[in-house]
From TrEMBL:
One of its GO terms (molecular function) is deaminase activity. InterPro entries: RidA, RutC-like_sf, YjgF/YER057c/UK114. GO terms for cellular component: cytosol. It comes from the Bacteria. Coiled coil: none annotated. This is RidA family protein. Belongs to the RutC family.
Length: 128
């Protein structure tokens, strides 16, 4: 059985998908771009400001499911410029700094929705 998870503190989906889906003891969080949930627009600022917004959005979705960043077991980072990896990694490390760190992939892509420079998706485990 699967359950849709939606938070009003994170941007609404910009297409036919859920912010997150809980199934089989896991929470699958859709890729988040740096959208301000109030305006629906990409936040201004450098890649670190954009990464911070993404993690706030992911945090809101996790919270809606009764979870937090310690529950995340896997993350995928999509960058339009792999040269931004170190700057994004610095922000990432603020959210994942102790315990068992998530498995992670980071890849450069040619384009992301709404001309975003960064997108992050993750999978979290729901404690049984």
């Amino acid at each position: 059985m699967k359950k849709q998870i939606a938070s009003t503190s994170a941007p609404q989906a910009v297409g036919p998908y859920s912010q997150a889906v809980a199934a089989g003891g896991l929470l699958f969080v859709s890729g988040q771009i740096p959208l301000d949930p109030e305006t629906g627009k990409i936040v201004e600022g450098d890649i670190q400001a954009q990464a911070g917004r993404i993690f706030k959005n992911i945090g809101a979705i996790l919270h809606e499911a009764g979870l937090d960043f310690s529950n995340v077991v896997s993350a995928t980072v999509f960058l339009t410029d792999i040269g931004d990896f170190a700057a994004v990694n610095a922000v990432y490390a603020e959210y994942f700094k102790e315990g068992v760190l998530p498995a992670r992939s980071a890849v450069q892509v040619c384009a992301l929705p709404k001309q975003a420079k960064l997108e992050i998706s993750c999978v979290a485990v729901q404690e049984q």
